[in-house]
Amino acid sequence: LLKPSQAQTLKGRRVLITAGPTHEPIDPVRYIANRSSGKQGYAIATAAAAAGAEVVLVSGPVNLPDPAGVRTIRVEAARDMLAEVERALPADIAIFAAAVADWRVANAGAQKIKKTAHGMPPLDMVENPDILATIARRASNRPPLVIGFAAETEHVADNAAAKLARKGCDWIVANDVSPATGIMGGDSNAVQVFMKDHAAPEIWPAMSKDEVAARLIARIAETFSPTESIPRP
Ligand code: CTP
Ligand code: CA
């Protein structure tokens, strides 16, 4: 029996993936970031390529090599990530695994901020564009399957179900990223998959991030019948 990853189940499909954190500049030498390692998104890109898909990975700054057989585009800030995602469309499947910074510094300095007698100057924070919601709610070129992640430290199921509705995506892969779980930066993951129009989530047991990726790609392939043709603009 072929493992789904070896079965070319996504041959001919174009898959767009975001991964990693974003870095939001404060000044030329400092930034705001988060603890995302990019491992889960990179594992999904690798699994999608192994399943025969044409994969574009838009990645924030991570310490991981470009996955083999994947077109990897490196970006720093959320706005650059959105621009590259839009350039990469159309896609059959979009998977937003990046831990996008929710806010950026509106008054980022062109020069290094210096210490003064008055202490640190205040940073004006403004909200970043929501890349997942922007793509999921597009009138044209919306990928037929749009998948988001929900990283939560509490009330995982309630928050994930609310996110599914709020973002306009088709699936939300939710995980508990409390420090005690070791998921943020670690090699294993335990997820619940919320699907639009499904009453209950699929609760997957704890497994490696590579296994989550393989299972997610297999689950995606099941939803696309081999003969179904995706309309292209
Ligand atoms: N996301 C995105 N762009 C943003 C923020 C989030 O594309 N500016 C995507 C993430 O890649 C993920 C999903 O939205 O697929 C949920 O991210 P999350 O941070 O859990 O949700 P938020 O809507 O930002 O809500 P909060 O951080 O307040 O929980
Ligand atoms: Ca967020």
Automatic annotation (TrEMBL):
Region of interest: Phosphopantothenate--cysteine ligase: 15-233
Organism domain of life: Bacteria
Positions of the DNA/pantothenate metabolism flavoprotein C-terminal domain: 10-222
Residue numbers binding CTP: D102, K112, P129, D130, I131, L132, F149, K163, K167
Task performed by this protein: Catalyzes two sequential steps in the biosynthesis of coenzyme A. In the first step cysteine is conjugated to 4'-phosphopantothenate to form 4-phosphopantothenoylcysteine. In the second step the latter compound is decarboxylated to form 4'-phosphopantotheine. Catalyzes two steps in the biosynthesis of coenzyme A. In the first step cysteine is conjugated to 4'-phosphopantothenate to form 4-phosphopantothenoylcysteine, in the latter compound is decarboxylated to form 4'-phosphopantotheine.
Protein family according to the UniProt entry: In the N-terminal section; belongs to the HFCD (homo-oligomeric flavin containing Cys decarboxylase) superfamily.
Protein's name in the database: Coenzyme A biosynthesis bifunctional protein CoaBC
Organism: Afipia carboxydohydrogena
Gene expressing this chain: coaBC
Covered range of the whole protein: 241 to 473 of 473
